[in-house]
Amino acid sequence: MAQATIIGGGLAGSEAAYQLAKRGYQVDLFEMRPDKMTPAHHSGKFAELVCSNSLRSDRLTSAAGLLKEELRHLDSLIIRAADNNKVPAGSALAVDREGFADSITAELKSSDKINIICQEVAEIPDRRPLIIATGPLTSSALAENIKKLTGKDYLYFYDAAAPIVTAESLNYDIVFRASRYDEDRGDYLNAPLNQEQFLSFWEFLLQAECHKPHDFERGNYFEGCLPLEVMAKRGHKTLLYGPMKPVGLTDPRTGSEPHAVVQLRQDNRQGTLYNMVGFQTQLKWGEQDEMLKYIPGMEEAEIVRYGVMHRNTYLNSPGLLTAGYQFKEEPGLFFAGQLTGVEGYIESTASGLIAGINAACTLAGNEPLEFPLETTIGSLAAYIADEQKDRLNPMNINFGLLPPLEEKISDKEQRNKARAERALDKLAEFKAIYNIN
Question: For the chain, which domains are there?
């Protein structure tokens, strides 16, 4: 009998198991909990939420809300369980975490297609199709095997990332394009600061609040990858000789070199997202929003991925995975969840859903599917698989990942509504073409 194997019973692994089982395939689902726990989990239940109980906004005019709606159209087990166990949270979808995990655990255990095996998997099995969905706290033994499979430069154990903002939210009357010493158009956007503005920015960093790491995340920083606020505490010249150095840049408004500069590097193929170069940080998210108000040209910038520095095992997926979450060098091997570089509950769910559907395609003798770029589920997968990226920044879903609309709409709410309508239309067409139920 056709059979698939899944390692990991989190959101992604649970979703993948359900998608395979509903299509009539047998599944061996391996989960090491409760026999062996991670530092973050507290039970052996499937799809346990280890942080917040919120799955973020449920409004269609938000990217998170649209992704959940797309998942509803694709019969997601995780989203159905969330809807059935929701608690009051305004426009967000928040859940009773115990009821949520209990309902998913009960459904998986009641399926005659899913064989649950409670044991740690230390080596990658030979059986295919195989989905590895072991999350950001993958056990060290399996992580070493994944490193051998992918190459040592393709697996990261610490996520040090700078904020990512949308290109459309920058003020181009101030922000200018240039590379250092380059007379051509340049590859970077630059936000210039005069001396007074820079000192105000530096003083803000000195008093800004930071996230406190979990006990299992504590450790020394690499000198080459210090948090922005740690550099600030070493003195303002540390920033001026580091990520904010203005050398080789000329502000076209003044015709001279600025006192300091924040450089932004293009982060996706469409040029809709930009990364703040060298701004990895542990500042609280609200503080990161406040920080932008001190940077001319970025006062109204929209952060779609906040800067972080925390333990996070993930693949450098560009070049390794397809937009169907399949390992390029080995058909039938899939990865899903935060291990792929997607961030967040619903993003992990989306990757598990695609991996499950594509494992079923493999069993049926068909090619894996890649969802339309106009959908949030497809654009997120395309982002983590984009071969033009040298290094992946783990990412939450956001509208900056989607292709621009053909029609320019200035009102943000109406623009997002148009994106949502386009996405659901494209998804309906895609489902009809490939007979996805």
Answer: 3-158+310-434 (3.50.50.60), 164-306 (2.40.30)
